[in-house]
Please model this.
Amino acid sequence: MIQILAKHWWLLVVRGLVSLAFAAAAFLMPKLTFELVVLLLGVLLLADGLVASFAALRLRADDDEWWVGLLEGLVGVGLGLTTLLKPEISAAVLVLFVSAWCLFTGALEVAIAIRIRKEVTGEWQLALAGLISIALGVLMLVQPNAGAISIAWWIGSYAFFFGLLLVGLGFRLRRWARSV
Model:
């Protein structure tokens, strides 16, 4: 599996850069209305879901478990489209959607990190990204009535660390592929 991930290292970097761009927007514009946060979140979920789906489809010929990545991507696309098409969704429902996405994505990332741990060093980056996803999901379940700015900062923090970790892992896989 590590050879497959290393071959497509740039897809992790793209996912990380999308998350970093979202984090910058969330931190630089905290007083924007909640509708803008909803729009940005919908774009992040949709873009991440599309890239994850594309990555899974690219892996289809090389990996029997490509469908797991496709499932992750389709969940992201579905949540992104729902968020963009129904901006009037209440904050509580939005928080539940994001929480579910974070928990689901985080669990899959931890599972993949465990699976590749014997093949590569540094898999902790993907596992940590997954744990951060899970932590944000739990936090949003525990505090669903937080204000729009707090939610923007939570999501921005998540997107920042998630993005850094994916970019780091992508470039580490690139170096690994060149050394093999």
